[in-house]
Specification:
Radius of gyration: 16 Å
Distance between the termini: 38 Å
Strand content: 25-35%
Protein name: Methyltransferase domain-containing protein
Largest sheet: 7 strands, mixed
CATH architecture: 3-Layer(aba) Sandwich
Organism: Micromonospora rhizosphaerae
GO molecular function, one term: methyltransferase activity
Number of helices: 7
Strand order of the largest sheet: 3-2-1-4-5-9-8
Structural class: alpha/beta
CATH superfamily: Vaccinia Virus protein VP39
Shape: globular
Keywords: Methyltransferase, Transferase
Helix content: 25-40%
GO biological process, one term: methylation
Amino acid sequence: MLGSLREAYDARAAWRDGLVKEPWKLAERQAFRDRLAPGARLLEIGAGTGQDSAYFQQEGFAVVAADLSPVMVDHCRAKGIEAHVMDFLQLNFPASSFDAVFAMNCLLHVPNHDLPAVLAAIRAVLCPGGLFFVGVYGGNESAEGPIDDDEHVPPRFFSWRTDEQLLGFATAWFDVVDFHPVDTDRGHRFQSLTLRRPDPE
């Protein structure tokens, strides 16, 4: 699954780098930025071409980007961002390395059977009290697999989760700071979730 996903994003990296972000995505990003302390250490997973990482870096945060696509990572580095070829199953960073993790439309590519391990890995690299933004499309149904009309080749794997499913996975590892749906410009429903790693007991 990861191999085909990498191939799909490698092939479309230049096209994706030219996309203009919708206003609702900018608003979600700004809301998360406003929750962070000045100079926070932030990891973006599924960073793509680094548009969001560049924004956070310009806002004064210490940013590291990770993406499974080498071509995407090249785009990140061209923007002056520290970036690593790394997928969500192998976050090779020391424990408690970051104050925040940002994942916009990344975890919708994680199968349900792998999601607990991915969330555990993200929790491990967050410091206690650290914040984690998850943004994915979903909420209306539970389904997994490639979509027939995907413009990417090969078609990408998606995991669509109901609100209850998504919150169930998340609360096994994190405390919920905020959850709300967004009705997007394209008619898709977006799930916005801000989580906090609990402090040690």
